[in-house]
Specification:
By secondary structure, the protein is an alpha/beta fold. Helices cover about 25% and strands about 40% of the residues. The protein has a single domain, classed as Rossmann fold (3-Layer(aba) Sandwich). It is globular, with a radius of gyration of 16 Å. The two termini are about 15 Å apart.
Amino acid sequence: MQSIHKVSVAGLQRDLPLLEVAPGVRIAVLNILGDTELVEAAAKAMAPLIPADCDVLVTAEAKSIPLAHALAVQLGVLRGRVMRYVVLRKSYKPYMGDALQAETLSITTGAPQTLFLDAKDLELIAHKRVVIVDDVISTGSTLQGVRLIMQKAHADVIADAAIFTEGDRAKWTNVIALGHLPVLLT
């Protein structure tokens, strides 16, 4: 039987499986893909916390895409205007043109990944105030990669937002988050 970690997100209960990511180190894995109830509830709870001067949301492929979408919809309803979001891809496609890129290391994959900003999205991001959206912020590596691309795109990152932060809680005091996940040492 797999070990679980119980969490509450915007009043919804979920059992997250615990995954060993290094010898003696386990994390609770949040996978929001397909969990429309959780995504919608999280977006509704997060929307009022997003700075009013946000122009566009930015997220990295793939698990946080539904959150960015739902959050953009909620912000549009809340603020009476269309809110856009941009997805940084994890592989380059020829149609992306002269894409900006940055390398990151994910705790869940354990391997370096490259993030790409499609050239068509550069105009949407350049000189805009952006909020980075993720499902879980753990090591900060993805944030660092996204921030590097935003810097190259001349965008102003005004906030980071996630359903959960993970690990050292003191490290993430500036992140807009609905909860915190521990890193479990065995």
